[in-house]
Structure formats: structure tokens, C-alpha cells
Amino acid sequence: MGTMCPVCNGLMEQGPLCSSCGAEMQDAGLVTDYLGPYSPYFHTSFEAPCCLHLFTCPRCGEDKRIAVKLINI
Ligand SMILES: [Zn+2]
Ligand SMILES: [Zn+2]
């Protein structure tokens, strides 16, 4: 048994909703480049395995980094 990211594997049915305008945000890719030892996400990653994605809003251009929880397979 392992884990996988539903977004990386195209299994996420709906993206997160934009906090500014309420439109569905689109996955703009992984943000592993931003991960570093001083990232706030670094400390939580081993407690709740997650995959960090950048989502952007097609309507207002807002972007947001979201830690997607991995699911068991
Ligand atoms: Zn992912
Ligand atoms: Zn928006």
C-alpha cells in the first residue's frame, strides 16, 4: 500500500474555490521548487503527507499554494 496525490494523478474532480471570486481554481503545477528547509510546509509534510500545488484562478488571476493531502491506494 502506498500513497499518491489525487491532483498529480488527475483524480481530483474539482479544484479549490477562489477566495476572492468563488470561481474554481485550476492546477498550475507543482511548487516543489519553492520547497526548502525553511518553508512552513516542510515541518508539516511528515505529519500529514501532502503534495504542494499552485492553483490559479482563471477569472481574477488569484493564485494560491495548496497542500493536497495524499490518498491511500
Ligand atoms: Zn500532486
Ligand atoms: Zn478568483
Structure notes:
With about 70 residues, this protein is mainly beta. It has one domain. It has one helix at about 40-45; strands at about 5, 25-30, 50-55, 65-70, 70. The strands form 2 sheets. Strands 2-3-4 form a 3-stranded antiparallel beta sheet, with no helix packed on it. The longest helix is centred in the middle third of the chain and has 6 residues, at about 40-45. The chain binds zinc ion (ZN) (2 copies). One zinc ion binds near residues 7, 30, 53 and 68.
Blueprint (SSEs and pairs):
Layout: E1 3-4, E2 26-30, H1 40-45, E3 50-56, E4 63-69, E5 71-72
**Major sheet details:** 3 strands, antiparallel
Counting helices, strands and paired strands, the structural category is mainly beta
Q: Specify the helix fraction band.
A: under 10%
The number of helical runs is: 1
Number of strands: 5
Order of helices and strands: EEHEEE
Observed structural traits:
binds zinc ion, two-stranded antiparallel ribbon, 73 residues, mainly beta, three-stranded antiparallel β-sheet
Summarize the structure.
This protein is mainly β and 73 residues long. 8% of the residues lie in helices and 32% in strands.
